[in-house]
Amino acid sequence: MDKKGRMVIVGIILAYAVYQMNKAFYLDGDIMWHYKTGGYILSHLSVPKHDIFSWQPNLTWMPHEWLHDVYLYLFYSTFGIWAARILLVASIAAPIFIGYNYNKENIVDIYGFLIYIGVIKLIEASSFCVRPSEVSTLILVMATVLIIDEKKHKDIIYFILTVLFVNIHGGAIASMLIIPVLCMFADLVIFLVTKEKMDVKANLKILLIAFLGSLINPQGIFIYKYTTNVFFNSYIKDNILEYKPLNLNLAAAVAILGIMLCFGASKKFRELKKEDIRKYAVMLAFLSGGIAVRRMIYPAYCFLAIFGFQYFQEYLISLNILDKDHTILQKHYKIILTTCAVVATAILTSMQIKKPVLGYVDYVKDEESDLTEAANFIKENDINDHLYNHYNIGANLILLDVKTYVDTRCDPFIKEFSGSTSLADFFDITTGTNKENKPVAVLWDELKEKYGFKYGLFDKEISLDREVAYSLKLRGYKILFENKGYTIISVEEQE
Questions:
Q1: With bands split at pLDDT 50, 70 and 90, how would you rate the model's confidence at 352?
Q2: Domain co-membership, 29 together with 108
Q3: Whether the predicted pLDDT of 386 surpasses 70
Q4: Both 395 and 347 in a single domain?
Q5: Contact between 197 and 371 (Cβ < 8 Å)
């Protein structure tokens, strides 16, 4: 790449970084209990096997992301809010740099590469947060490159990467086993078409190595219990956004269709070379997974960004849109600039219209915030015994050292782990799945009787909490605390 091309790359990355660092960007709400878990592990020098954040007794918990929690705590404690900003920018920028380095010998036009990245990002525009998945996905990408390109010492490196993966994001460890399976499937396609000999032994060896590496974690073989129980829990799939199918807008759907057509029409794909079919199998599998379960769209974005460009470029060359003497920008600058403007507008708009998640540790800890004021009242008056809270603010309460009824960790509150039906009972109210069509206030009273709530912390921004709090007030239950955002009511004591 010439000096001008490098400056373009650097300029775009820096501009994006500045934009992220100055706008009210969004973090995943889970960051708060991840942060507290990291602090707990470092102070106790052990990974908890039972719940430490809820007032409910005897709950099993599997903190499968413990290593992420540790470095997040250290990073955030050292650098504050800038840690989150840096991690966020790095997670989004990394696939661009990896994609360029992976394709640099074959890139005809750097402008075309950046435009392609922009289109891919449109597909994944909803994911702007600091999560274990960003780091684990980059590990997954490196592991995939090892197998596809048949790098030296791939066995031992794949083992090390698997051990890192399972301790950073153990709930998704199946991904490391899926890659060699996809490669075996791709090799089978090659064999059926070209009769090229399959190296079954090498793929099975990688699969065995990945499985053995996955066992090196605090939970051992039981790490797979998390994956199966959570992913197949109907309440989680039906009520938690990241487990639901991806809702594609028209632009993203057209982008996906166009990209996949480019792959299919590319010269290399038609030649059915092993490494190309392997790449295609990986991209298609994770893109399908990302459409089916939206939390998997980030891996799909990374694989498309890194593996997909060569096919996109070849397709443009086959259409005489791109050649080695003329760049895309020079030949079709009006169309390209218009496309870039539309894509940029769509991405920026999608980010701005999102509702902010209370994800800043600093924000939640602010002594002047309404929730902090309510949390301090709870602790000062010792009323954290059998306290009701809405699922959405559970992580916030964990950060503020208030014991929860339910929170976004999910696994302690499902039957498969702890025998608890807390999450299912809560979602029955919020989703209206109760077949008797009882009023929300009546359903909440039944929940109160089952769990023995003594106090309720109600968020005025949440419709369920507003309705229940209003009902309790009408019936004369004692209001212990109230500010602009929250109400605390004694649900056993009446005025």
A1: very low
A2: yes
A3: yes
A4: no
A5: no
Residue 264 has pLDDT above 70, yes or no: no
Same domain for 399 and 487?
A: yes
Specify the range with the lowest mean pLDDT, choosing from 11-20, 240-249, 379-388, 449-458. 11-20
What is the rounded CA–CA span in Å between residue 219 and residue 206?
22
- The answer as to whether 63 is a domain residue is yes
Mean pLDDT of 165-174: 92
User: According to the per-residue pLDDT averaged within each range, which of 231-235, 239-243, 488-492 is highest?
Assistant: 488-492
Domain final residue, candidates 352, 385, 401 = 352
Helix (H) or strand (E) run with residue 489 in it: strand 486-494
Q: Which of the listed residues 322, 352, 382 is the one where a domain comes to its end? A: 352
Helical segments of 215-308, H only: 223-231, 234-239, 250-265, 267-271, 274-292, 297-307
Query: Do 233 and 163 have their domain in common?
Result: yes
Lowest average pLDDT, out of 133-137, 252-256, 402-406, goes to 252-256
> Dihedrals φ, ψ of 211, to 5°?
-65, -45
Q: If we measure between CA atoms, which residue out of 305, 261, 262, 254 comes closest to residue 282?
A: 305
Are both 341 and 404 inside the same structural domain? no
At which residue do the structure tokens 């309440």 appear?
235
Q: Whole domain around residue 172: which residue ranges?
A: 3-352
- In the chain, the number of structural domains is 2
| Sign of the Cα pseudo-torsion (211, 215, 221, 227, in order) | negative
